[in-house]
Give the backbone structure.
Amino acid sequence: MNRREALSAAAVIFGGTIIGANSFLSGCKTPAAKTGLFADEDVAYMDEISDTIIPDTPGSPGAKAAKVGAFMKTIVTDCYSPEDQQVFVKGLQTLNEAADKAYKKKFAELTAEQKTTVLTAEGKAAQDYDAKRAKDAPSHYFSMLRQLTVWGYFSSEVGATKALRYLPIPGKFDGSFPYKKGDKAWALS
Amino acid sequence: MAQQHYDAIVVGSGISGGWAAKELTEKGLKVLLLERGRNIEHIKDYVNANKAPWEFAHRGERTQQMIKDYPVLKRDYPLNETNLDYWVNEKESPYTEIKRFDWFRGYHMGGRSLMWGRQSYRWSDFDFEANAKDGIAVDWPVRYKEIEPWYDYVEKFAGISGNRDGLPQLPDGQFLPPMEMTIVEKDVAARLKAYYKGQRSMIMGRTANLTAPHEGRTNCQYRNKCWLGCPFGAYFSTQSATLPAAMKTGNLTVRPWSIVTRVLYDKDKKRATGVEVLDAETNKTYEFTSKIVFLNASTLNSTWILMNSATDIWPGGLGSSSNELGHNLMDHHLGVGASGYVEGYEDKYTYGRRANGVYIPRYRNLFGDKRDYLRGFGYQGGGSREGWKRAVPELMLGAAFKEALTEPGSWTMGMGGFGEILPDHSNMVSLDKNTKDKWGLNVLAIDCELKSNELAMRKDMKQDAIEMLEAAGVKNVQGWDGDGTPGRGIHEMGTARMGADPKTSVVNKNNQVWDAPNVFVTDGAFMTSAACVNPSLSYMAFTARAADFAVNELKKQNL
């Protein structure tokens, strides 16, 4: 977000889409532990979660192809506050427990349909949580996963160039450019 | 350094310092340009300018380590991964906040000319006459007619794009073609014009981005990555514009890593003789002499230099005889506005990323309007179509969710206010002699706050934004009144104000320090009031004017 974007206050409308952006402004936190939050298998696990949120579709690859699991590891480790890190890491356990309860399997071992069922139930829990959430309370872990997936995917090379229109040097501006339903959005703002 | 004597020394290489260097060298003076920070070479050193989002380790986001390292910058949008190197190292250069003041600094070649917002507006006589009419502070010793030709002059070189709107409170200039409004902005502007019967206007923002090739520089490519440094040189900065012009004369010497610690002063001749420099890398001290000195170290740092100068004569420093040095600190207060959604226009989109928005010039306390506060405010805003960052609450996950985000969302329209802050003697800076920076130098203590006039104005800034958007048919309009802490406007002004009387001002109408007429202060420090428009264009105009005056005075042997 540059100054113009800050001023036209798009952030107020879209507020909270990128998790952390708000909490970052709230105070100085101790730095994150640089290692140890995630094991290698967690990255694969997060790839599976993100690919359930943004799957392969006929037009473009899904979040796994964009390495969103590794992106989550980087962002949660380096950018999240310790409080948000706790919520996130505990949430990964919660999700596996939910998978186990429903299907006696780990989340990553479920079928695509089962993954969607389990994750959707967690998403509904997040909606309930948000409805009653105190102003300063942390986000629900599902909201973190969903937002990291969207951000990680559409800002990746795969997402920006395959799912969206990536135009690094437009060269001109047209404020009334024709659009028809189905045309892709621009990757950059 | 081989040469220790120059015709002129310019302290600081930002917007005003670059102009001083250009003007003085082009008029034949041998000039030493001192920059306290590192060199940043045009294009070559804009290391992130061509990176794709995925080439940043954190996709541009701030890390916890950055938050720890930048306790001031973290308070607003500037703390980010993409241009972190352009912001001052706060551990090396702390300052003291008697009251909270968000001071966002850039200590490097080009200063904040690399990261500035580029909005460029002229003052009018509503602004120059305001102090006199309101009976506050001191009157400006100049009027628009005197500055107008200098606005013309700097606009022609800098390259300001804009529309000639014919508004008395926002005079037209020497513009390159305006950028284009989005279709939603055009319609909102038309509805506002009809609703307010021409009393309020929404115009295209006037910006120092080139809409046509100009002075050997390439036109804007609509990338909206200006603050990384422009590899096309398409916006005005020291590096893209004034520095190459000054270098071309063969009269310029540039010395980075040069912290000016004081102006050298000859009390018998009542003239400055040069400056003392602390080399930021070696900690060695040097003296450079010159006939004239231009202080362009940025508003608060120019005042800091004056406070450290000639203290054997004036304990408060050079220019302190008026008791106004350090006082009357101003900024623009912002963080107030409104935004909402615009229905329809689904068959329209934007092409290109316009690093500019629309502007609503001041209308309060003008043309017969009378409020319970003085002065007024303007708005910057924009109407654009949402992208993948938008919320899609109706879809949770899966293919449909993904597909929805691969298409643009609704059109939105928003605006944020820029309010004038009155000059107030109690809003001030002083030297904190108990706190030192990395080089053992006393730091500044800032004691500044919004007063009742600004707080009253903020109510209108919010309510008017809501009213205008609703009048224009915008839906779900939400107003906000966020953080108005001074400093966040990044438009520090005042602390060495201009005036007609040496008893009540620090510099005269030609930007000369009353107590040392060969010292010129032409950055924001000289501002006697703040108006509500972005100030940099006025610094350019006053700097070019002062340089012209200085060279004429040198020729007449008056300095």
User: Anything to note?
Assistant: The two ends of chain B are 26 Å apart (CA to CA).
